[in-house]
Write a structure and sequence with these properties.
- By secondary structure, this protein is mostly helical.
- It folds into two domains: 57 residues; 63 residues.
- The chain has five helices and no strands.
- The protein is rod-shaped, with a radius of gyration of 52 Å.
Length: 157
């Protein structure tokens, strides 16, 4: 029986080696496939950068190149930045227009105040008040005929 066991063990050893050989072959094929795939990717990257022509730009083929696909996030950032910049510029122009219109309005109000102030100053003069009172005939006030005199105080009192 010992002899019967030996050939079985040898058969198992040969089967294991055949399994190992098959496994090694599969690993080798997988490694070769990965190498081939990565080499194609590298070639595509190099080719996609070198094939920029007017026809590819106009036809839109350039947008499908690997370089462009890797830069999509950056392009999206640029678009958002352009939108924010445009919005900010529009808002600042609106603010500038508002400031200019408020300056014009302020100048108009200043002119009105100066006109009213000068009218009041003119109307508050003594001669103008007397003319108004004479025109209405409501007052018994008259122009003084004697000049004003100064009242002096005695230091003793």
């Amino acid at each position: 029986m010992e002899e019967d066991n030996k050939p079985n063990i040898e058969e198992q050893d040969t089967e294991l080696t055949q399994d190992e050989v098959q496994e090694r072959e599969e690993r080798q094929k997988a490694i070769e496939a990965i190498k081939k795939f990565t080499e194609e990717d590298e070639e595509e990257d190099e080719d996609s950068l070198g094939e920029i022509t007017l026809k590819s730009i106009i036809g839109g083929d350039i947008l499908q190149s690997r370089f462009m696909l890797h830069q999509v996030v950056f392009f999206m950032f640029l678009v958002v930045l352009a939108i924010v910049y445009t919005g900010n510029r529009y808002a600042s122009q609106q603010d500038t227009l508002l400031i200019d219109s408020l300056k014009v309005e302020l100048q108009e109000e200043r002119n009105k105040v100066l006109t009213i102030e000068s009218d009041l100053l003119n109307a508050s003069r003594q001669s103008e008040i007397i003319k108004l009172l004479k025109a209405n005939g409501d007052s018994l006030l008259l122009n003084p005929t004697k000049p004003p005199f100064i009242i002096k105080e005695d230091d003793n009192q």
